[in-house]
Amino acid sequence: MDILVDCKHVKKSYGKKEVLKDFDLQLGRGRIIGLLGPNGSGKTTLIKILSGILSRNDGEITIAGLPVGIESKKIVSYLPERTYFSPSMRVRQTLQFFADFYEDFNMDKAQDMLSRLNIQPSSKIKELSKGTREKVQLVLVMSREAQLYLLDEPIGGVDPAARDYILKTILTGYNENASILISTHLISDVEKVLDEVVFIKDGRVVLQEAADAIREQNGKSVDALFREVFAC
Amino acid sequence: MEWVFQGDKPIYLQIMEQIKAQMAAGVLKPGDKLPAVREWAVEAGVNPNTMQKALSELEREGLLYSVRTSGRFVSDNPRQTEALQDVLLQQYMQQFTENMIKVGCSPKQAAEAYARYVQSVFTEDE
Question: Which of A105, A172, A232, B85 is the most buried (most CB within 10 A)?
Answer without folding.
Answer: A105
